Amino acid sequence: MGLSTHVLDTMNGCPAAGMAVELYTTDGDVATLVKRFALNADGRNPDGPLYDNTNLKKGTYRLVFDVKGYFAAQGVVLPEPNFLNRVALDFGVAHTDQHYHVPLLVSPWSYSTYRGS
Predict the structure, then answer these.
(1) Which of 90, 110, 117, 85 is nearest to 8 (CA)?
(2) Which of 6, 43, 50, 85 is most exposed by smallest CB count within 10 Å?
(3) What CATH number does the domain containing 49 carry?
(4) How far is it, in rounded angstroms, from Cα 44 to Cα 65?
(5) Residue 117 clears pLDDT 90, i.e. is over it
(6) Residues 40-60: tens digit of each pLDDT
């Protein structure tokens, strides 16, 4: 299935619909933007997988989630500066024949991720 992501808003107990996300390929300190998108009502990329198995390449990637912008748009009163602004997750893909799912569970004060299925 390639590469996918899903974001759940743990403060409100719902998908993080509308959150802005960026996908990069990385090579050392150099990050190259691949795609920007806003999550759909289910908290996922509206176009489906970010990469299918045919186009997913072995290497390193970064997903950047606009946590501050999302919670501000939800009307959450945030301190300035907010504890979390943008959450960047750097990860590697070693096996392009496998599915790499990168979920994010997030609130204005915490986040968790793992390699999902």
Answers:
(1) 110
(2) 85
(3) 2.60.40.180
(4) 12
(5) no
(6) 999 999 999 999 989 999 999
Number of domains in the chain: 1
Rounded Cα distance between 115 and 41, Å, is 22
Q: What is the DSSP string of 11-77?
A: TTTEE-TT-EEEEEEEETTEEEEEEEEE--TTSB-TTS-SB-TTT--SEEEEEEEEHHHHHHHTT--
Contact 8, 114 (CB under 8 A): no
What φ, ψ does residue 34 adopt, rounded to 5°?
A: -100, -45
Q: Do you know the residue count of the chain?
A: 117
pLDDT score for 67: 98
Give the domain range for residue 90.
Answer: 3-113
Longest CA pairwise span in the chain (Å): 44
